[in-house]
Amino acid sequence: MVKAASLAGVNVEFLEFPPVVTPPGTTKSYFLAGAGVRGLPINGVFITFTGLGLYLEDKAVPYLASRWKAKTPAQLLDSLHFYRDIIQGPFEKLIRGSKLKTLDGPEYVRKVSENCVAYMKSVGTFGDAEEKAIHEFRQAFKDQNFPPGSTVFYEQFPNGTLGLKFSKDDTIPEHRNAFIENKALSEAVLETMIGEIPVSPAFKESLATRLSQILNEANPSIEF
Fold this sequence. Notes:
InterPro entries: CFI, Chalcone_isomerase, Chalcone_isomerase_3-sand, Chalcone_isomerase_bundle_sf, Chalcone_isomerase_sf
Organism: Arachis duranensis (Wild peanut)
Largest sheet: 7 strands, antiparallel
Function: Catalyzes the intramolecular cyclization of bicyclic chalcones into tricyclic (S)-flavanones. Responsible for the isomerization of 4,2',4',6'-tetrahydroxychalcone (also termed chalcone) into naringenin.
Domain Chalcone isomerase: 12-213
Helix content: 25-40%
Pathway: Secondary metabolite biosynthesis; flavonoid biosynthesis
């Protein structure tokens, strides 16, 4: 059993990811599974653009512990199946993507959606329904601009629906900007972040480190 007091938050440059969050309109809490920076090398210099964090509901702990308890961070980091169990697991997930640099909404979603389409095509899950979902996904961002500190929240539900919330800071809004019912797209969003070709290796490593500790301490439930 992991107590909230034993969970630490994570700082990604000037962004703070608290150990536990409770979205408005619910009493359900989600614990921080990991957080890290996303960036790109430009002219030999690594430029950071986004801080990514993944929050999971409590039922993720017994589910993952039954498969991965007693594994070291290095063993988890080396296993794609571990990350696929997170991506495809039957529990709620909340992804926080907070901006370190100003990003234009249409340009941001273009790159994200291209990565998602490429992944879905590579595993054979891209069809007419996914093409429609990608269009909805892009439309949600068409009038958005994200200054430093602003956030995109991705809500992922076991039935495959994907909720999008936009915030000018790190506060989780109650209002959803979009709600897309497509399991393949929802899984692809997280796959591109922590899967086989991750946009943020630091995020992926943080998940292995934190979840190794949480799962090894699991009883196998988590209590807040």
